[in-house]
Amino acid sequence: MSSSEILSALLASEVRGDLLILFHKNPGLIDTVDGIARRIVRTTIAVVSDVRELLQLGVLRQKRIGASDVVFLDRAKDRELLESVANHLKTVRMGGEK
Amino acid sequence: MTAPRPKAGASGFDQLFPGETEKGLRVKTGIVELDEMLRGGFMPGDAVMLAGSAGMGKTTLALEYLVNGVSMGEPGIYVTFEELPDQIYRDAKNFGWDLRRLEEEDRFRLICTSPSLILESGEDSLLDDALRDIQPRRLVIDSLSHLELFVKNDDMRMEAYRVIRYLKTRGVSSMLLWESTQISGGSFSVTDVGLSFLVDCIIALKPVEIESSMRKALVVLKMRGSNHDKRLREYDITSHGIEVSAPFTNYEGLMTGSPRRSVTEEAANNWAMAFAKNKQKHS
Predict the structure, then answer these.
(1) pTM beyond cutoff 0.80
(2) CATH class of B12-248
(3) What was the ipTM of the complex prediction?
């Protein structure tokens, strides 16, 4: 996946933006999808597809704890994606300045 | 060659790090006066209960314990059910503790989760990843009182025991925060659900009214396997953390929350006044 595709995928919806803000502000958050939805004042149905997208991108990871599935930020992958996006934005800006 | 058999009744820490307790190593809080009260610090691997009502500085003391631990080469984890971590990062920064930087250096983790998930049992624990990533020596749970909301009173002791055992068997010294509305009377009952006997050490934080102002008192109520200071000491929450000062010497009944001047102090003052009056009369 190219950097511009990653950027588009990360910012594809308002809910996805809210999820990214939540996890960047609280990188140690570990909760169920229900719990995460509550923390951004949304319903589970409203967030589930965006959580799935972020899991596919690798920003979030999922784990089974007892009878519950929890999601949390993959700090290493998140850092990697952010660096890639930042480099992409730098290139775009430099291209624009020319 | 076979490993030496652990002594009967040895704690998880003793089994993992044989001889460390005997060598006199202590888990220092980094708050000098508190370490003096604890005769050097907590015993390694112990479960410590930090009990007190709201606003007494439980979170501040617990964070300071972890941050000081990091500077002594002991990584730490703070598990909160209380607030979103971004508030804790902000509050910690006001004391000069940059938790985000410590996280980047893999010496600290702030975990925010639901109490119900800590109680889930299975092959994987919620804490496994963080324990593996930073190999902590200290861990704070803020707070056990939140766990109580998710379990029946009768089950609370068993669940707390399970959490304490989980940490002890991994050689982690734990500090468990407890929201206690009342710590008073001769019985020193800290919790309603009988958790006091599960922990190795209890530190109580208590507001006391002295001459119409609210002051804060700290006391070590229990410390298994070690001597400790039994006196109540005044403390304050300053811009750089908890500051413990001298013991309250002139007051009795501090644990009731409404202390009175001790008889000897009052008698001495009365004598001094009588002496001064008498001197005035004859001059």
Answers:
(1) yes
(2) alpha beta
(3) 0.86
